[in-house]
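Objective 1b of the project was to move from sequence-level analysis to a structural picture of ligand recognition. The entry below was assembled by the postdoctoral researcher (A.K.) and checked by the PI before modelling. It contains the amino acid sequence of the target and the SMILES of the bound compound, flavin-adenine dinucleotide.
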Amino acid sequence: MTSPVSPAADAVVKPDHASRRSHFIFTDEHDQLRESIRSFAERELAPHAEEWEETTFPDWVFERMGELGFLGLSYPEEYGGQGGDYYANLVLAEEIVHANSGGLAMGIAVHTDMATPPINLFGTEEQKQGYLAPAIRGEKIACLGITEPNAGSDVSGIKTRAVRDGDEWVINGSKTYITNGHRADFIVLVAKTDPDAGYDGFTLFLVDMDSPGVVREKRLEKLGMHASDTALLAFDDVRVPYDAVLGEEGKGFYHIMWELQGERLIGAAGCVAGAQRAFDRTLEYAQERTAFGRPIGKFQVIRHKFAEMATKIESARQMVYTTAWRFQNGEYPVREISMAKLHASRVAVEVADECIQIHGGAGYMKEYGIERVWRDMRLNRIGAGTDEIMLDVIGRSFGV
Ligand SMILES: Cc1cc2nc3c(=O)[nH]c(=O)nc-3n(C[C@H](O)[C@H](O)[C@H](O)COP(=O)(O)OP(=O)(O)OC[C@H]3O[C@@H](n4cnc5c(N)ncnc54)[C@H](O)[C@@H]3O)c2cc1C
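Corresponding predicted holo structure:
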């Protein structure tokens, strides 16, 4: 048996720490995609990152990304997608961090990996032509409406109601914390259609946001993710046609639970990439900043902080990649997705916090952008399922 590294007996083998770390799920095509998304993010988005913290990022970002083919990486070519695999979406989630804007990354991810996947999987041909194809082109912006003022973690507690009236449905209720809610052209909405049917009483709807009765009530202010828009929405006797139902009537709860798996895994990939980016920037800082006559990175305490962070980031990355491999290969790995989401979001917040520490006072200053990483990353322990809900899903999967 040969060992993976088989040097000649008299050779000296040294590790090449600077070499590229490849992973078996990615091909050369993914690498090319990686390069083009990164260069787009660095050249066309990052220069505006600070400005967009004040104004939220503009809608042209969707159009431009549609033009470049980045909004439909894994969607079928017949709807304008690139026909790629799930790993292409991971590449997008990882490389968009080079825009230096967590809010932008979230707004895009909601569009590509949260609101549109149910249309691709459950939609009719008409819905795919009417919503998915323009979303892939970046002409229509999507949002996803699950959370309500009185029901977040407990999705089955939502109250928004859709009642059948002849050939139409009439929707009443409200949704909150809706990312892209102010700019969106349509919403994938979860509503209750049969209050007596338990988990079988929910249905997904595709609702045009310019329908009479849809009110974009309030632009919500947040701790971080300032470049994204977050809305409180009201639905006041909103009438939609009968065929606005997305997927099977009464199966909306199960459809949305499926959607959440992709959302959580993409979120986890974004956390790993965000943590890595903060790590890289901090490493540079620690090599330049001096104290007591040496670069701060040369203190063992600081060196060990980097070692701890790198180890955590690598563990989260391996969980995300292996879980993505399972997902891509037809498994429905809910336990592992929940673990990856839980672990990656915790790691991202821990790393961002430690990066602030290594920066000292500079870490607390807006100018260095590290405090923003912490504020942005903090959302990940709450959004798309809190840490506590992830722990519960994992625990229950063992039958306890
Ligand atoms: C910036 C931002 C963007 C968002 N974007 C969207 C979006 O686009 N679309 C959308 O639909 N939603 C969105 N959300 C909502 C998000 O998914 C919810 O905030 C999240 O699921 C938590 O729900 P909640 O806020 O109602 O908290 P709650 O459910 O009220 O939870 C409060 C606390 O109780 C804990 N808790 C609740 N139940 C349990 C339990 N069974 N066991 C143990 N602990 C429990 C929670 O973990 C948490 O710590 C967004 C949220 C934010 C902050």
